[in-house]
Specification:
By secondary structure, the protein is an alpha/beta fold. It has 5 domains: about 200 residues, Growth Hormone, Chain: A; about 220 residues, no CATH class; about 35 residues, no CATH class; about 280 residues, Rossmann fold (3-Layer(aba) Sandwich), CATH 3.40.50; about 100 residues, no CATH class. It contains 32 helices and 14 strands. It is elongated, with a radius of gyration of 32 Å.
Length: about 900
Amino acid sequence: MTNQTNHEGEKRGSLSLALIVFLLSGFSALTFEVLWVRLASHSLGVTTWAVSVVVSTFMGGLALGGVLFGPIADRHPRPSRLYSKLELGIAFSGLAASLLLDQVPSWGWSFWGQVTVIVLALIIPCTLMGGTLPALGRAMSGLAPTRALAKLYASNTAGAVLAAFLTDWVLVPQLGVSKTLGVVVATSLLAAGIAWQLVAHPVKASEPEKEENWPSYHRIFATYFFAGFTSLGLQLAWTRLVMAMSRPSIYNFSTLLAVFLAGLALGSAVSSGWADSVKKPRAWFGATLVGISFSSLLCLLSIGFLDQIITANTSKIVSNPLLASAVMCALRCVALFGIPTLLMGVAFTLAARLISQDGRSIGTLVGRLATSNTTGAILGSLTTAFFLLPHLGLFRSFIFLMLLEVAVAVFLLRGNFKWVKALSALTFCALFLPAGTLLYSVYLPVWSASWGLKPDSIQYFRDDSYSTVAVGDTDAGRFLMVNSTRMMGDAPEGQRYAALMGHLPTLFHPDPHRALVICFGCGMTAGALNQQPEFSEVVCVELSKAVLDAGHLFARSNGDVKNSEKMEFVLADGRNYLLRTQEKFDVITFEPPPPTQIGVVNLYSADYYELCKSRLTENGIVCQWVPLLLLDEPDLRLVVKAFLEVFPDATLWEGSKDDYLLIGAKNGLKVDYENLSERMKEPALREKLRSIGINNPEGLLATYMHGPEFMAEMTRQTPVTTDDRPYLEYSTSVRINWDPRWRRRDIASLWGFFDNIPAASKVQIERESAAWDVYRELSVTPRVPGPVEMIQLLSGLRKTLAVLQPNAYLAKTVTGFAAMAYQPDLAALKEPAARLWAATISGQTAEAEAAQQALRTSLSPEQQQQRHHRQILEQQDRKAGPPE
């Protein structure tokens, strides 16, 4: 009796140790997967392809490992030793695969060649991972098998939760990719060492399962196959929805993944205590699948209301904006899929109960159960990413996946379970009736509010395998939204910087012929390059088909570039395109999304700039967009530092008040001013430049801000963002707080980059530069001026801005500022404000005074009665010069 008690105690102690081992295993497995996705993206680009290839190989290996090692675990006398050997193999093969993936970009192979290498490199460690659950489950088979399997699954998933948080919140930001790889290898070795000590005495080999039982198991395997299909499909759809509602940062994505995995772990852990006592596990299994579908629908319908509560209250509780964003993301995830993921965890426990009722062939059955689920997950992720989302859209994809879950419960789990069938029928009807229309009507107001749009202003809304894309109209212009970010639009300032991105590097190049545009956006940079007569070919690479398809909505501002015979459009990731092509370009421009968005750092790293430099001709020039409104001071320094690392003679230019442009030349920038002036006389180009406020060559060069010496000094203590140390992606900056020196022009450092500038032109450049400084100060004032203050400002700028001559662009943009300031009085004040501005910069005193009078009579009675405003107006009537 004592020996039996000691033996049982030893087994329970072994289970506790096994849970620790499997937690470490889950941590190392998911960390490996995250690192592999990052490494693969350096070859395949930041696309659904990179994620799909790694995830599919990862899950395919798990499925293969379950099939291969399940029977081996059943026959092995010491399955814990088998598990230990598997972990050792994972550590060393995972390290070798990671090192191999790091070298793939340098080989220059074709896309499918790279995919083949990645799959072959990952299949070995992933197959070994697939054998761990059957081996450890077999080692613990002496205890209640359902409870042991459920606890092991929960422990392994809990380790993955830790990995989801720690990898992107701590390890990669602090250690970089290479050292994080060392941590994960050490973790696998630790798990192997602990597992070697588990259950030292031999375990009796399992009896093979009777053949007559396999048909019933096949139904369970088939059901769990479709459960895996729908689970991964729903996860992709949930991810798309949450990222459209939240800031798409690496921190929020890690939070989402952690919440998803935590739901699985918690569901499995909770159900492990009662699953063995269930009398009709097949009925409960079917009801759980229906519950996943039904709860997913209820959560989808309620998340709009819940999100309003979350948004309104989180910032009151959490003061740090970055942490508040992550907390809001986590709460949205819990509200959206907390209950469904709990039920998914329960589903595993019930499936384990169905295959382990007599305790025989545990390794084989668990292996086949895992194989069925992971195979379904592979197909579910691929089908959702490449078919459902592009063809059905997000909401109809949700409906399809939920209906499939219900259909599996109804048609594959046969039996006299009337209550399951009734619940299934109810859910089927509840899902079928609204289709995607109801969900669309629920979410459109939520999304449009986050974009700053009215629902009826949205002109375009589409999903593809990469993103959710919308185009909407505002008083300021038409804008392009990708997921939750307003990327760019055709407002005057947007047209200005986008056009300058194309015209500046082209005009600085002595004889350009071929250009490459990475990221289409609204197409205005591509349109600017297409307008340059020197180019015989302009290649535009865009990741999202939905973005390209929306280009016609900006035809007026991009010159209908989509229909130009000169243009070649390539649907691909920009970095992957550069890796695969051997073509050389005279001009390369890139305007990727903000660098703090997930994965986009690959287009802001020194490694990427080196790749761009290798694709330039001898006199080639690159131009990089720098979004000031989306970067804090440390982020700006990181962007500039990485660029300077590859282009040490880089210069910084003002595309607009909110957008700077970095220009780098392969062999240093040297421009012939006479050549530039002559080329700017081309009629169509001259007219386009006038429309953005550039009337002459002096006006073009007046957009210069800083040279390499200033930028090198400002970034002297800043680390270089590389593929191994992606500092910029993990930026914790949350407020725009600029060093004012970035805003001060250093025209004196411009002359060294240009030959043959006449002395008179230098004087004019300095005058225009000073005038643009005044304009910028007006446009970036921290407090939007009221109507009377606007009159005072415009009148006071008359002499300073006279050097710019009549400038339609400035009149249009300041009219926009007036629109922001005047709000209710927009209709009445917009026209006289534009008249006043145009008259002010052209020095037409009589017209300016008439416009002032028109503004005064348009003011509301309350505004006219304010004594302070009357005094300002009277003062401005007497004084036309600028204030001291």
